[in-house]
Every structure is written in C-alpha cells, then in structure tokens.
Design brief:
Cytidine Deaminase, domain 2, 10 helices, about 45% helix, alpha+beta, about 15% strand, 5-stranded mixed β-sheet
C-alpha cells in the first residue's frame, strides 16, 4: 500500500501535506480532494486521508456532497465515521450560509435542458446515484438531495424517501435525476416503473413529478420531453 509520505512526494514533489500548503498561504495550489483531506483530517485503518478524500469525491460527487445536510446518510453511504461526515456537512453548511448572506440567486428550472445543465456533473460518477431536486411554485430550486447510491449495476429508491424531503421543504413540485454509469441514457423497464410509481405518488400528495431525467456520458433522456410524465 502506498504510504502517506510516498503519496505526498509523488503528488507534490516534496514532503508536504495540504494543511501545510494551506497554512503557508498557498490555497490556490490545493485541489478539491486536497481541501477535503484538510476537512476530514485523518484517514481510517483501511485508507489514508488522501485515498479517503479521493474516494468520497469520486463516488459521492462534489455537488452532491455540497448539498447533503444529513451526516448519517454520508456516513452510511461512504462508510466513514459519523465525526468525519459531520465535519463535511458543517463545512459546506457554513459556506452555504455565508454565500446566502451575499445574495445567492436560486436556480430556475424551465425545462429538461436546465435540468441537464444543473446536474450534468453526474455523468462522470462511477456508481448510480438517484437524486431529488425540489422546486417552489416559481420553479426555483429550494432543495437538492442525493437520495440513494447504488452499486455498479443499479440503485433502489422508494417514493417515501423522495416525498419525505418534498414535504419537509414544502416543495411545490419535484424532479428526479439519476445517472447511468454504462454511458447509455435510454431508460430501462426498471426506470419506467420508478417513474410511474413516483408520478402516481405525486398525484396523491399533490406534489407533481415534473420530470425524470437520466444522465449519461452519451447524453440525457427526459421523460417530460418524451411526454411520459
């Protein structure tokens, strides 16, 4: 296994940790994974801090991490300690609050193209993620949540997980998005079944499903665009 000191020398050409680079005032030299390593501080008995931060970014997705507010979900999904998960959530929440104080504008979703542009970072994820995007009555994004992460062959989702958050944030409507690591965006019979189930649940709860978008390396598929929701 690559030792921490070997990793630092290989990555930086010198025996220096990201924290030391940060303390030296050279924050621009740090990548996303380096900053994550600074936040979580230490690794585990199975992974050093750099391998761990790299795995978190690669498997969970940087945008998903930034939007997730449930440390237990990150801890459970990424198999990291609750303390590390809490540090990650606290760091992004702090940034979100400071950014919000400076007048952050909410994203407006007008159609499938906007959804793809908003969530296109999912196309490079190596595991299948199922994500809920929650809108207010003006079609502005008010909440964004990574609902579940599957293995290389797929993921499972239940309406209660999708609509629980919709009710909590008083959403007027919802959009669900998931990726196909295979690279192909055409929906499967399983995707059709999930869409039908969520549409029916939304009608009962009066929180309509606006769209279900599948994102892949080769493009995207919109159930709304194909008039299937």
């Amino acid at each position: 296994m690559l030792q921490v000191s070997d990793y630092i020398v290989k990555k930086y050409g010198r025996a220096e940790f990201p924290r030391e680079t940060l303390m030296d005032g050279r924050i621009d030299e740090l990548g996303t994974q380096d900053l994550m390593a600074v936040i979580i501080g230490t690794g585990s008995k199975h992974e050093n801090v750099f391998a761990l931060s790299e795995r978190i970014i690669k498997e969970y997705g940087s945008k998903n991490i930034a939007e997730t507010r449930d440390p237990a979900h990150i801890s459970r999904t990424m198999k990291i300690s609750s303390l590390k998960a809490a540090k990650i959530v606290a760091a992004f929440e702090l940034g979100r609050r400071f950014f919000g104080q400076n007048g952050r504008k909410r994203t407006v979703i007008r159609g499938p193209e906007d959804i793809y542009e908003y969530a296109k970072d999912m196309k490079s994820l190596i595991r299948e993620h199922f994500r809920g995007i929650y809108l207010n009555t003006k079609n502005c994004v008010i909440h964004d949540e990574n609902i579940s992460i599957g293995n290389l062959s797929g993921t499972l989702v239940h309406p209660r997980e999708v609509f629980k958050s919709a009710i909590e944030c008083s959403a007027g409507s919802i959009i669900v998005v998931h990726n196909h690591p295979s690279g192909e965006f055409e929906p499967s019979a399983h995707d059709d079944g999930i869409t039908k189930m969520l549409k029916e649940s939304g009608e009962i709860l009066q929180i309509p499903l606006v769209d279900h978008v599948i994102i892949a390396e080769n493009g995207y598929y919109s159930y709304n665009k194909e008039r299937r929701v």
